[in-house]
Amino acid sequence: MERFWIVRDGQRVGPFDEAEVLRGYESGALRADDLLVGEHGGPGATVSAVFDQLRRDILTSPDLLLDPLDDPSLAAGAPPRPAR
C-alpha cells in the first residue's frame, strides 16, 4: 500500500495511507491546492488534480456497469407502480 505526504505552504506532513487521504478529502481537511506526493517520489500533484482525474477514470471505466431497470416505465420518468 502506497503512502502519501501532504505539502501545504512548504510544510510536509505524513505519511498517510490512501484511506486517510480519502477521508481528508471528503471531510474538507485537504485543500484543492495541497500537493500529494507519493512515497516513491516524483513531482506530486494537487489534491484537485488527483481527485478530478480519479473521478474521470471512474466515470469512463468500462467496468462501471449500471443495473438495468426492472420496470421500463421508470426509465420514462413515470411514477412507480404500486406493489402488489
Write up what this structure looks like.
With 84 residues, the chain is α+β, with helices and mostly antiparallel strands. The protein has a domain at 3-59. Helices cover 32% and strands 27% of the residues. The protein contains 3 helices and 4 strands, in the order ββαββαα. The chain has helices at 18-27, 47-59, 72-75, and strands at residues 3-8, 11-17, 35-38, 41-46. Strands 2-1-3-4 form a 4-stranded antiparallel beta sheet. β3 (35-38) and β4 form a beta hairpin. The termini are far apart. The model has no long low-confidence stretch (mean pLDDT 78).
The largest β sheet comes out as: 4 strands, antiparallel
**H-E order:** EEHEEHH
Overall spatial form: globular
Structural class: alpha+beta
Head-to-tail CA distance between termini: 50 Å
Q: Number of helix segments?
A: 3
Mean model confidence by pLDDT: 78
> What spatial order of strands do you see in the largest sheet?
2-1-3-4
How many beta-strand segments?
4
Chain-wise SSE layout:
Blueprint: E1 3-8, E2 11-17, H1 18-27, E3 35-38, E4 41-46, H2 47-59, H3 72-75
Antiparallel strand pairs: 1-2, 1-3, 3-4
